[in-house]
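Figure S4 source data
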Amino acid sequence: MSRNSPRSSTPERGQPLRVAMVACPYGDGPERVPPLGAMSVLAYVQDALGPWVQTHLFDFSGYPRSSQAALARIAAWQPQVVGVPIYSSQVAIVDDWVAQLRARLPAAVFVAGGPHPTLTTETFLRRRTHLFDAIVRGDGERPFVAILDRVAAGCRRFEVPGVSYVAADGGIVEMPDGEQLAPDAMADPFSVPITHANAPLVFTDRRTGRQRSAVALVSSRSCPLKCSFCAIIAMPGKWRSVPDDTLLAWLCAEHARAPFEHIYFMDANFFVVPRRVRGLSSAIAERLPGVTWSASSTVGMLLKLEADLPLLARQGLRMVEMGIEAASDDQLAFLNKRSSVATNRQAVRALQRNGIDIGIDFIMFNPDQTLADLEANVAFFRDCDLTLHEDFGHLFNGLTLYPGTPLRRTYEQRLGASFDPDRLPVVDPLFRDPQVQAVYRAFTGPFRRRYMRRVERLRDAARAAARRLADTDSGRAQRLRLEAIRIHHVPLKVLQQLCRAEAGAPLESAVPLLAGWNAYERRVRALCGAATAEAEPAAAQRPAAARLEAGAE
């Protein structure tokens, strides 16, 4: 029985209702983190309806878009209701998959939910009456349970708060918004049966140099801040968190069932309430000794706990993904970050001082920046000793205009037209400064396409050769380690040189470093010697592995 949503009394329904949640491919390669929102909704369904439902989560988020085997597996389970969480970046893929599933499961009820349908309510279902029977807006738990009640009773009129549905005459009925789910009503996401072929979730602990088996979950919803580019602020509901005792019970039960060594807290902003962070950190250290954890934070929220960082690190905090976003005060104001370059530096130094890794959330390119702003972004990484960050994704990251965000509306007003609600706008035409636009085009286009894979492979080959030669040729191994560091700096150096180059110059002319790249690459590979041939297969897999662990690109 649900804590917030009463179950309809239908003892005559017989066999349990088969309810599938399908995470469609994201379209950007392999995936390790399971679909946490779908897990939460299905866990709530299980709590609410118990034996009246049979649930299963098909996590194909990391599969190829063309995977017929995945579609066949879903259809073979014969679900009567199919829920589909949707992000704005995967709309076209979802449309394709749901069309094929509809053909295989013509009697099933299809329900969309998640960020994109919530943020594009006016158009999403109207464009897809042939694909979906209903959409759930905002928190999906209670509306989805109410839809299941009606399906089990043979009713297709989903007159439920927080739902829009297709009526019998083909029209769309939009019900009033639902209430946000109370924190004490949230259900244990680890209780959901999942089908997937993801690689095991791990965390690389740089303190010990080993990988830790990991779990991921969301312990709070929303964010109290109002960054102008962030889709989270456009979603309904205020920030709230799962009660500490409930959260710890979930984690302890999962640890007893399948032991893990690290917790990824995937909240939008875990550090909102300092007292909660201190309490959870102490409780994890006490009840799950040896388990480490990581979380995300904005700069200001992290600095409220600056004095606590030494203790948090001793208790197990290993990494903070931090929303730095920009390195000039004008850019930060434009993004409504409520931080400054000085506080950004302070937060970075505080984490570094305590040996806590930094996950970098950064918008390297935004259409309103000047060339001086872009150069400040590049200098920030150098001045804050962030140049050896393993992932390169932040260097190429441009502003994404998500539906419902203030910045998307700003650019629509400037253009005097609306963007297609089902597409993320291409940022290139929006640049105000032609010099910044030229740098953006050269760096994210020909440089990334022609050189990045070569840079990563050469760096990894040098690293592998250095390890192999460490005991037999220490001098050569040391030189290779230095070359690997030099190679790792190449993307940032290229960006720096592009900022100083004459606009419109060919890439190799604008960047002297690249003009001699072929010869340099041959020299490094010669230095690697026989180790190179053995190192390259692993190196070729490196970009995908980076995406798996760090969520790059």
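Figure S5 source data
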Amino acid sequence: MRSWAALRPVIEGLAATFGPSCEVVLHDYRQGDRSVVAVAGQVTGRQVGGALSEIGLAVLAKGDQAENDLNYVTRTPAGRVVKSSTMPLRDENGHVFGALCVNIDVTALRQAGDILSALAGGVPADVGSTTFTDDFADVVDALVRKEELARGKLASGLSRTERLELIKALDERGVFAVRNAVPPGRRTAGDVAIGPVRGSRGMPQGGSVTTLGSPMTPFLALDKGRLEANIARLRGRLKTPLRPHLKTAKSVEVARMLFDGQAGPITVSTLAEAEAFAAAGFTDILYAVGIAPDKLDRVVALRERGVDLVVLLDSVAQAAAVGRARIPALIEVDCDGHRGGIAPGDPVAAEIARTLHNGGGEVRGVLTHAGESYFADSPAALAAAAEDERRCAVQVADFLRAEGFQAPVVSVGSTPTAHFAQDLTGVTEVRAGNFVFFDLVMAGIGVCDVQDLAMTVVTTVIGHRPDKGWILTDGGWMATSRDRGTARQRVDQGYGLVADLDGVLLDDLLMTDASQEHGILSIRPGSAAELPDIPVGTRLRILPNHACATAAQHDQYQVTDSSSAIQAVWPRVRGW
């Protein structure tokens, strides 16, 4: 049984027998956290050398007492429903050393069953998720998040007794049974805070990180002082309650700063965010992306845990599905033709509301987003966009109330309109997200100054092309994103402005082009400035066009004070 080559025809035969919806995975637990030694078929997305999941940890925790676990149902991080069986493999002495896992994608069958269940008056059952991944740290993070959700608080906020209980729970789940599961620079048995697992990636092992000269580039640097100032500025001008959108920061630590260390009402753009922030104690959450019916079971699961999670819709079909699941929803209004939503004055709003209400859901209110405000370029145009946003939302809310629906919530917002709204009569909450960091697009339309940008990408000079007038860095579009939002503005900032490590802008030096892992710096076209002589190994900052897109390329923030000293590492929520 120790010859994996001998089992290869077996797993390939099993996968071929059940067709493209089947995957067979072979694990050797003696390989430590990278236990996958063979894969046939593709369902969970894992590859040879990938990590064992929570299911494998359960086998390890039971040791030689482990038995076959047959026909259980789970869910992949991508949302696919999988029916699986895990069979431990034993050596000649009866000791468990691996496992054979068969995974069959039953998503389509599950959806058909849910439809039949709904027609019969039932509620589709929730399916838990499994962290199928190639990185064992993600599995540990998922287990910590589950324990945090059960306790209603972050691991970093636990008392000593609670921390010991969490360590015991992780041990019972098999975390510490995995050889090399706790590599240097990551987690120790006494450190169960969620941050250190993800937060240590990119750090040199064997030493502490104290300045921006230490972590491996490229990485995100976050100026906490500027972050605090940006938050204070918006909170200081708004008289209407703020429901910050966390799609930009995707950080529990930033979220808590928005509410003076506490939890408050938030907006998210993914259910992964909703789950992570719920685990951190945030229970008033708006999922502000049009709902896909196959995501409703995850919404229901959070609501059953006491989270007031509200969804967004703009069609009768969505309203029917949401109503059957008995979930509250906001109706999206299109105030400027930017993307989804119904037009103000469209009578379909009443039909959507009736369908939602009659199906068992709740018409919580309306929502709109002035996406076109990102292209306004004067205070007058920004104020006009804010007023149009308010007027459209209030108009549809008034219409719904006249039709007999309470529609208590009128939710508006974007970073530009939140900063230029003059009248918010009829509005119950304002949403904005980009404002915590700001970016060059916001500076370009006059919402902020370049000096307000709180987040930058730190890169290293790796070469020169004097013949082309280029400086090359290790920060390509994988580090900064391909967003070219300023290209439509009066001043095109390329892929970003360039500053030294102290934050001092270099005269007319831009990131003008990028490949996957290479950034190209050159002088702004038409400028008389000379290309600076910057030696290989020098660290530079790139100021981003679009903070949301740039932050999305990274797992964490290196948080600094007013200098380059790193005070903390804050993880970001990833996935959908």
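The two ends are 39 Å apart (CA to CA). The chain has four domains: 4-119, 136-200, 225-442, 449-571.
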